[in-house]
Recover the amino acids of this structure.
């Protein structure tokens, strides 16, 4: 595996509203009213400045563990409205900024009491129901038997009598779900395929042999999935903070130290959407071995520039997390009998502009929203396509985005040779199948007539030539002068010069057949015109 110190980072600039900061010695500070961001490795440093009036980015993602972020920079980000998140090398979410949302103690008190009231049970049941429905949608297009095995668990959820029953059903659905997806293949380039460790070619099971559940990934597929989950958790945390809720007080996930349990609750119905995007990503992209780093403990980590490409999906997860966070807040607010606001989707503001048009309200499907409905917005296909990284299928080098190419300029000739060889082998297999079935196209009456006419024509030409030049042939001259030239010429050129069949010319070049002397002068004349000699064959 390629070490982290040799990674080449892309240009430091916002993409899809996301600025990714990576490397060692990271510095985020304010200078003369501008936010100055510096990162990189060793002497390869990158710097980017942001003005307060600029609205090119919505999220600042920090990947790494060395450097500093000043207090003035934190206030600058808060004033401008840029969300900040810090993700460790292993994909673990360390910290996020909190937007100054509504501050209503009654809402947080209702949230804290929810696990002990009916509100918490209803929320947990609806969250898991949405998650299982999403898993069914993912499996329905990939494994019909898997979807049939998971579907009965959805009906059992209506009979759940306690939080323990809900967690048990969710766990059973997850086990069946991931077993069906374990055989999903990852596509590496030809060079990397011989380098990757055993087990990286497929997604495998979600459980990690290193402990800590599935958090410490041991292969490339689970490392990418964990990283995407961390990005979605970022948006869940920011959305809950904007709604005035505490991301750490959950209802489905129990309270644990240094864990945002409510953010993980909101993440549950979003996970199938992340899985669907992840599976599409694997189908459409070629990975490289130096996109990943395996630690001495066996933990697989993602490296740049793949980390940057994946971070650009934050706008997708923001659109999914926003309505779910608002619906959770709505459930708590209803129990506390306080008004509900929608600062994330701005649904209520759009409803107040009926006479002026409802363009912004179209972002949320009101037919599926209710007091306990968790809207799962469809992902923007365009944003998803922009997030996909395009790689050469042979060497794995980066290709221009939206180029729709599969090979780089250096590997294109190799790919054409491989394609020709593949087509030739497929043609031979097809002919062999036809011969075995008794439907050989070479043995039809028309084919036999053509062969007979061609053979007769060639024999008449050979006899006419031998009557003028004799039947004695100088085969020593043939081996010394003609054979070296034949190795330089292609089969199509021989067909054009001699008029013989492609198969016969191929046998002549392979040394299985000899070219009749009547064709020698044609070959030697062509070699003379091109300036070729017997020594050129080497």
């Amino acid at each position: 595996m390629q070490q982290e110190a040799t990674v080449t980072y892309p240009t430091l600039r916002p993409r899809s509203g996301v600025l990714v900061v990576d490397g060692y010695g990271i510095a985020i500070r304010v200078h003369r009213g501008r936010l100055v961001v510096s990162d990189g490795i060793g002497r390869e440093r990158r710097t980017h400045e942001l003005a307060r009036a600029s609205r090119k980015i919505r999220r600042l993602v920090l990947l790494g563990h060395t450097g500093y972020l000043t207090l003035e920079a934190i206030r600058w980000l808060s004033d401008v409205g840029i969300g900040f998140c810090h993700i460790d090398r292993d994909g673990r979410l360390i910290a996020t900024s909190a937007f100054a949302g509504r501050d209503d103690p009654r809402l947080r008190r209702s949230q804290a009491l929810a696990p002990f009231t009916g509100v918490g049970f209803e929320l947990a049941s609806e969250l898991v129901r949405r998650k299982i429905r999403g898993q069914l949608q993912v499996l329905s297009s990939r494994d019909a038997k898997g979807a049939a095995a998971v579907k009965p668990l959805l009906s059992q959820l209506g009979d759940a009598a306690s939080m323990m029953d809900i967690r048990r059903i969710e766990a059973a659905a997850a086990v069946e779900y991931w077993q069906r997806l374990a055989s999903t293949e990852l596509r590496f380039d030809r060079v990397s395929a011989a380098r990757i460790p055993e087990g990286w070619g497929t997604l495998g099971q979600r459980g990690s042999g290193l402990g800590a559940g599935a958090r410490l990934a041991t292969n490339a597929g689970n490392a990418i999935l964990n990283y995407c989950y961390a990005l979605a958790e970022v948006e869940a945390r920011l959305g809950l903070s904007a709604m005035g809720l505490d991301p750490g007080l959950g209802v489905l996930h129990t309270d644990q130290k240094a864990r945002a349990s409510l953010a993980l609750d909101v993440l549950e119905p979003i996970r199938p959407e992340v899985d669907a995007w992840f599976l599409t990503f694997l189908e459409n992209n070629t990975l490289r071995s130096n996109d990943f780093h395996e630690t001495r403990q066996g933990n697989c980590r993602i490296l740049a520039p793949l980390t940057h490409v994946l971070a650009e999906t934050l706008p997708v997860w923001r659109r999914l997390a926003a309505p779910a966070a608002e619906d959770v807040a709505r459930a708590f607010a209803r129990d506390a009998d306080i008004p509900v606001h929608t600062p994330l989707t701005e649904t209520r503001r759009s409803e107040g502009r009926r006479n002026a048009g409802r363009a912004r309200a179209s972002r949320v499907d009101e037919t599926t929203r209710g007091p306990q409905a968790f809207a799962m917005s469809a992902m923007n296909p365009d944003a998803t396509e922009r997030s996909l990284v395009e790689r050469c299928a042979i060497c794995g080098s980066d290709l221009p985005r939206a180029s729709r190419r599969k090979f780089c300029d250096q590997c294109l000739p190799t790919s054409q040779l491989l394609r020709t060889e593949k087509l030739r082998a497929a043609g031979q297999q097809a002919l062999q199948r036809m011969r075995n079935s008794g439907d050989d196209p070479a043995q039809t009456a028309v084919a036999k007539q053509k062969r007979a006419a061609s053979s007769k024509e060639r024999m008449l030409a050979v006899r006419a030539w031998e009557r003028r030049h004799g039947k004695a042939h100088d085969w020593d001259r043939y081996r010394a002068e003609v054979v070296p030239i034949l190795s330089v010429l292609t089969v199509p050129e021989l067909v054009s010069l001699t008029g013989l069949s492609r198969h016969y010319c191929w046998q002549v070049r392979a040394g299985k057949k000899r070219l009749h002397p009547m064709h020698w002068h044609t070959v030697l004349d062509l070699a003379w015109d091109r300036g070729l000699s017997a020594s050129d064959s080497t």
